[in-house]
Amino acid sequence: MAAQAPPERNRYVDFLRALSILAVVIGHWLVAAPYVDGSGAVQGGHLLGILPWTQWLTWGFQVMPLFFLVGGFSNGVSWSANRRQGASFSHWFSSRFRRLIYPVLPLFAIWTGIAMFGTVLGIERPIVAMAAQLALIPVWFLSVYIMVTAVVPLTHAAWRRWGLASFVALVAGAVAVDVLTLQFGVPHIKFANFAFVWLAVHQLGYAWGEGHFAKPAKALVWGISGLAALLLLVFAGPYPVAMIGVPGSEISNSMPPTIALLALGIAQTGFALALEPQARRMLDNLRLWTGVVLINGMIMSIYLWHLTAFVLVLVGAWLLGGPGLAVEPGSGAWWFARPIWFALYIALTLPLVMLFARYEQAPAHPKAAGKGDVPEWRLFLGLILACVGLGATAVLSIASPEGVTGVRLWIVVLPFIGGALVRFGKLYDITASRPKTNQ
Residue 64: exposed, middle, or buried by beta-carbon count in 10 A (0-12, 13-18, 19+)? Predict the structure, then answer.
């Protein structure tokens, strides 16, 4: 596959995607630090709260901006090709929706079973809820990314008409939301920044695709400007250092995103793209490029299952009497043991990825046509149901403190219904009316 990549393909896009997923995995495995206290109770330790100096590390490990940057590049290229071919939005978006939602369904099904099984066995519900919540953290990103992808026709049209002004308008919206939230205390409006911040970074992906950052010096200016803005917001403004939520902190830079996280996204964009010429030459090495292709081929599985492996390793240690779990997070012994724990996480992540990576390549329905394969009302209804389910999972958890099953079944079924609406929507077989030929 690596050898067959077309020469015009921008390999740096795939490299940034692969590098980002590895940063996410390492960051999650480090920051989540459950331990068993002196009374034998399981506590959900958080490294950023235990060791405040580690909050600076989130400037490198919080790479969600890079995912949206890469998404903007890829969506811009593919949507432009779709328009040139005269294909419909339904055809374009339904294939992306399937690739994003199908890999999540096995994860939901298995964790529903684990939560039910744990409840039946009498495991304390808070422990079941902690495990399920931790394992399903990655799904929040998918709900936002699906919605950002759904409005690509609008955002790309805005880019084509107004260029960087469309990015500036979204930045202004994000600034206004933060001012209304932090200065005037307007309730709930902060959640609008899930749109303003991530759409703004997504617009930079369009800019990248059209050569705006072709000159490294220009990209470097963007990087320095973003970093300067971030330093100003953190040291002179109300924003915390950590680019993810920290227990006890009044403000989270990620849930929902703030302009501080947007500044980080601008900085990451500039610095990453300033290195693009050298990186693309480096990726001419077939061995390195093959590794990038390998990771990209199972990237959703790595993202979705790495925390399940983390939880299962910890549960296994707990069932064996808690070896290593009584070590205080952040201590010298805790850091010294990280390579051992990481080896265990990797050992369990690999078989999970190999088992479930097939769902990333879920084929379209055999009768799916080149145009309008799913009616748009089904497409949007499926989108809404799936995103509500994924969002509710991140906020509430599928584990329920009440009820016989110990599971909020209404949350679990929504992504399945959304996926089914798109998978089994009305299909048009455009070959059916064509006369058969010998060609």
Answer: buried
